[in-house]
Amino acid sequence: MLGCHLGRNFQVTVGGGSYQEGLTSVIQGVPPGMMLTEQEIYGDLLLRKPGADELSSPRKEPDLPVLYSGFNVSDTIEGAGNKNHTNGTPLVILIPNLDRHFIHIKQYQDTNRTPRPGHASYATFMKYGPDDDAIGAGIFSGRYTSTIVAAGYVAKKILRMCGINVFSYVTEIAGVGCPEVDYAKTLDYTDRYKTMRHDLDPFYQEVYVKGRIHMGMRFLEKAAVLAQIEGEIDAIRDKTPQMAPEAIQDKYGVHPIVNCPDIAAGQAMVDACNKISAGGDSVGGLVEVAAMGVPAGLGEPVFQKLDAELGRMLGIGAVKGVEIGAGFKVKDMTGSENNDQMHSENGKVVFDSNNAGGITGGVATGQTIVARLAVKPTPTIDKPQTTIDKYTLENTQLAAITRRDPTIVARIWPVAENYTALVLLDQLMMHYGYQTLKDKIQ
After folding, report:
1. Segment 61-117, tens digit of pLDDT
2. pTM for the predicted model, two decimal places
3. For position 48, what pLDDT does the model report?
């Protein structure tokens, strides 16, 4: 299979499928000397996993990652203090599938003759034939986005060390929008939202905080614990710390379900989504990504423009549109309205607006980079739909399916955040190299 690779300097290759043994991220370009743990990677993975709240499907995959290679398993010399530091070799992250049972496989076997409208199942059957990994949609399932989140966390951690903060949030669900945001305040909000999710996630607390799996263990020791956890998923989930929505808002200052920086708008989104979901249908929405601290001049011309690279986020399942800055609104603007005029203050360039989303000519201006993703409604719905038998081409009807996400929007934002980090770090490595060479010859 081609198409599962991203990047030139910071490279990511992903593999696996929804009901295979698991999924894998192979990352090249990670600098040596960075401390990295499975707990912090899981801290991002839990933000997109299913079964976490009323807006996601009931599948119970915990998405517990295993760092397999690319880091030092012990100090390289006695007392060096570089155990668990990256060592510059390819970093491999495994994400085993633990909630994979025959009852679910049998459900797919019973329905795989009839492609689900809105899913890739007909197109992938035409591409790969009868051996298409149709159990849970394989690598075309939303589960593959866990590999992007895992790899993107590593990129995001490196970017933060370079003064660049990447964050994402929900701005619309079911037609309910969020008011314009202050980016500095929204960065703080998203950090608090993540802290809340960490504190209330039972696997984060039971597996990592309590040390059931830790970086001092060998791979086979971790595998043995994961095998135990496979049989304890329900028991661990029952230990979810309980907090009333009002208590969450008081303690963390965030909405308990939706990562929307306006709490009232977030609740209106949940209410609108639940109303439509109660009738068996699903909804879409918008996710916004911002990056602060990106140096002016980052980006390449023509085929590697920064905004074009961010447009690759169309590769995220369910994303049907990506816009930068004002995006499609520019069609209704005049030149004087669209242009981001600038002036100098205390020796620094200040822009009067940011319709360009921090990018002109494919190159960063130094402003906050802003991208927006349109997410389609979940194609799996609780309504009968017409389809065909892909072997006989007979017309038939697909029965309603109840195990589903009422919306995918609330799970897409961590994928968009970490995908953006992958793009920015790859571009930053090119930028640093180019600027270093430029300085040496002048």
Report:
1. 899 999 999 999 999 999 999 999 999 999 999 999 887 766 677 777 777 788 888
2. 0.94
3. 92
Find the mean pLDDT for residues 5-16. Answer: 95
Which residue shows structure tokens 């607390």?
Answer: 205
pLDDT at 182 over 90: yes
pLDDT of residue 123: 86
Amino acid sitting at position 45: L
Tens digit of each residue's pLDDT (9 = 90 or more) over 50-72? 655 555 556 678 999 999 999 99
Domain ranges for the chain: 5-440
CATH number assigned to the domain covering 5-440: 3.60.150.10
Please write down the long-range contacts of 275-282, taking CB distance under 8 Å and 24 or more positions apart. 275/174, 276/174, 276/406, 277/406, 277/407, 280/381, 280/382, 280/383, 280/400, 281/377, 281/381, 281/382, 281/383, 282/377, 282/378, 282/379, 282/380, 282/381, 282/404, 282/405, 282/406, 282/407
